[in-house]
From TrEMBL:
Keyword rRNA-binding: no
Domain P-type ATPase A: 230-322
The protein, known as: Cation-transporting ATPase
Organism classification: Eukaryota, Sar, Alveolata, Ciliophora, Intramacronucleata
UniProt keyword annotation of Phosphoprotein present: yes
GO MF assignments: ATP binding; ATP hydrolysis activity; ATPase-coupled monoatomic cation transmembrane transporter activity; metal ion binding; P-type transmembrane transporter activity
Transmembrane segments: 29-49, 175-204, 343-361, 381-402, 841-859, 871-890, 911-935, 955-973, 985-1007, 1027-1051
Domain called P5B-type ATPase N-terminal: residue spans: 15-94
Amino acid sequence: MFYKVKNSEVEGQHQLIEIAPIIISKFRLLIAILLSIISCFAFALILQWNQRLYQYFLFIKTTEHNCTHYLVSNSTNEKFICKKIRINNISYFTYRFLKYQLKDNFFQPVNYVESSVYLDEKSKKLDLLLNNQISRDIRQNIYGNSQLQIPIKSIFTYLFQELTSPFYILQYFSVLLWIAEGFIIFAIVLLSFSFLACIINYYLMRRSRIQLQQLATIQQSVKLKDNSIINGSDLVVGDQFYVHDNQQLNCDSILISGDVMVNEATLTGESIPVPKQSIKELTNEISQNTLFEGTKVIQVSQYQQNIALVIRTGYSSVRGQYFRNVIFPPPPSRQFYLQACKFLVILGLFILAIFTLLYIIQYQNMNYSSKLIIIRYLDVITWIVPPALPIFFSLAQAISLLKLKQEDIMGSNPIKAEEAGKIDTICFDKTGTLSTLGLQAHDYYPHSDEILDIMACCHHLVILKDELIGDPLELEMFKKTNWIINFDDEKYFKVSNKQKTFKIVRIFEFSSHLQMMSVVAHNQNEDTYTLFIKGSPEKLIQMSINEINNSIHEQLQIKTFNGLRVIGLGYKTLLPNQINLDRNLLEFQINFSGIFTLENSLKKDTSHVIQQLLNSNLDIRVISGDNALTTTHCAFESKIIENKSNTLIIDYDQSSDSLLIQDLRQQIPSSSRSSCDGKPGSQYNFILTQLDTIYNNDDCNYAITGNLWSILMQNKINEVSMNQSNDLQQYNQLKQIDEIDQRFIECLNKVIKKTKIFSRMKPYQKKEIVQYLQTQLNKYVMMVGDGANDCSAIAESLVGVSFSSSDASYTSPFSNRSDSIKCVISILLQGRATKRIIIELFQYLVLISVLKFTGTALLQFQGMNFGDFQYIFMNYMSSVPVLILMTLSSKSNTLTTSKPNDDVFAIPNQLQFYNIFIFTSLGCIILSIIVIQYSQQLKIPSPIEIYIREGPLNSVMMLANQYYNMLICIILYQSHPFKNKFYQNYPLTLWIFGCLIIAIITTFSNSSRGWLSIVNINDEITDHSDLIVFSVIFCTSLLCQICQITIQKLFPTIKPIKK
């Protein structure tokens, strides 16, 4: 049995799809306990590692009445188990700090204000909220309080989870093997190093969470309506409290009395005053009456009490959703790591085969004890799978964030530092990203008193500390009129010039859904009332009942074509008995008067940065909520398109089921309209046919609007039922749905591939575009935006960049403190460098592990092995600094038309890996043959119970490892085109050459060999053995380097970026 979920906006990016009631099976639980005991708790660990197995082994499906838990599935197809809670005979569960309840056979997030409100129940619903009879304790149990509690694991919980992970289990296995072989000191060092790394990781995680908690916490006292004073974090849903100046809000609440001015910079990043009015009736659109958590009150009404009702607290608030996104980021891509695991398994089988062959040929004749042979077989796992691998991957990612921080780019997710190296497509928002946030008044048309009246009245400016403040657009518009504004003893304001005076009696704030705002103004000279309205020109023209002058249409086309921000202006004459009507009745059948234009210039370096991105073959697109012509001009100025005059703008008019095509290739931009025939399915057939024809032109730029995108996403043909089929033709049409759907997908793919400009896009549509690019076109997308409107698209993209300093920017993996989009280039360069570093870390760790295995295998020909300190030196004193310093390699300064090829099984990566593997192994084999041939034969005990830890072969293999450990790093290091030159990593260069100098001294100086248990090889083998060893290592390394350079030229480890 499954329950569907009624999704809500409070879920944010963590939507659930379906819920299944489940219960723990006592029989299965008993079996699990028995299996765990029999397997020494190995089965319990497997259940802990594999959540799917845990879910399906221990739990069975049942009815809702009998269940103890719920199996919840989210939008990314992940499954989680949540415990059932019963409050007042209603079933609840909590998923990622958000509580869900069962209601009418659907689960839905608990929401004090239901999103769906019937018209005839508005006042009833509001009264119900204001006069809730549920006790405060029950409300707190259901909705929680206003404290955003960031979860921080205790060190014991963290250590238990980490130290029982597969990574550490492999460590324990390695330690046991080393102890069994007699390498007790090395085993202790190995375990200590891993435990220390775990403690450091916990410290970093805890510090990050504490910083997040400090950001989330708002400490202040709040006065409730009953005059009691409580801590703001103790507010619960249903509480009514007084709002005062300079208050930072602890929760989302609706204003039920008074008028308030707030600064919503923490949500939007724009530090402008936003007016909030008390709610009169409950509707679907209450944002104009909502005081959002984290925002700051800058002014309250002096004429009445200002009281707010708490409606959302904790993680269900808008601000809480941002923090929820930080705590639960999208699951990262694991393709590289999965490929790496497969490669290690294949390599492990190959090494096992070699060891088996050596055993058959040589080892079994040497009478090794069964214990040593078994241990050596098991030991292959520890050689091939370097236990420290995840540690150094994480280190490389963390250091990348530190490097970006030096450029004022803040990163919150280390994994994204690596994933930035995959990006091939970048989507930019327009306003505040490509262009500045500032606006400058340009002009208005026509030049008439009627237009000036609208511009002077239609705004919601306020006075604060003797300064006129408000939306920058409205400030610029009012200043253009040269009228006088007066706030004395007025609820809103009066405006006047020498001829007339208007008093504002009602204000309807701007609604993104309606795309307009309006005011009711009283002309005190003529004692008349007028509704003045401003908003989207297209929307106002659509609502207009008057015949619009052709010159206005022409000016609208010209102004938008030139990239100006255009605001439509209109009015409606009202009777005195109409001024208190609902907004939807007032904003209807208006008179369109003209337009007001503003300039929104590009940021200084926008075009230069975009040109660099285009030169690197990246696919650049602009996704904006602005007018299509304005967005097209911005795309042209920023060089995203070469010629704006060669652009087709495609819109869709839903009222007439017709495509609107605006062709800018004509001298005077014109529009054409084509309509479909109205039969079921013909709408989509028509759109597909027209779009397929339009997009066949490869020499044209394309721009589409949100209206067209919306209709493309709906595929309405699927909504036509068989009951509507009145004739055979319609029936046959419906039978071809699959064929049309396939055609639709192909057509949509073509549209998205060729469209560079997306205009009039709502926030959820921006997310859909990014989602489509990534899922359907297999693009790796970076979304760059400036505020809360882009949050969902930023979160949906593989890598997101925000310019805002708001709480909303926390959801972005990267946020830039400066205003320049040059940060995008820095992130891409650092991402590619990090990706290349991680590939090299993986290859280096595996190669030196294989090299040690090769040395050990050769040593066993004489019953030898490395000593305790020799292993410690090779694994930690020599290699670990190299690995750490490799992560410090700096990024290149120039973007290229390629990105790192992170396919482990790609031919270039395989060739380079096996080139080094073959030559280093060959060097060790040649040296072992020389030693065995010319040194005095050692007495090998029979049977061999313990290894000999000192001798000529041991000394030569130790020297070879000491050289090769350094030389492999030099051979592997690739600078061009993602990193700077090897020598520019000064710490790594000094360490490598320092270790090589020590190796040379150890090779040629008898007095410097004792510390590594190296014997005098000249005496033990033959004269000038030191020179022979050095020559073999030098020649094999030189040949390896030559082959490596040749392979890199013939088979470069890069992946060309294709648009």
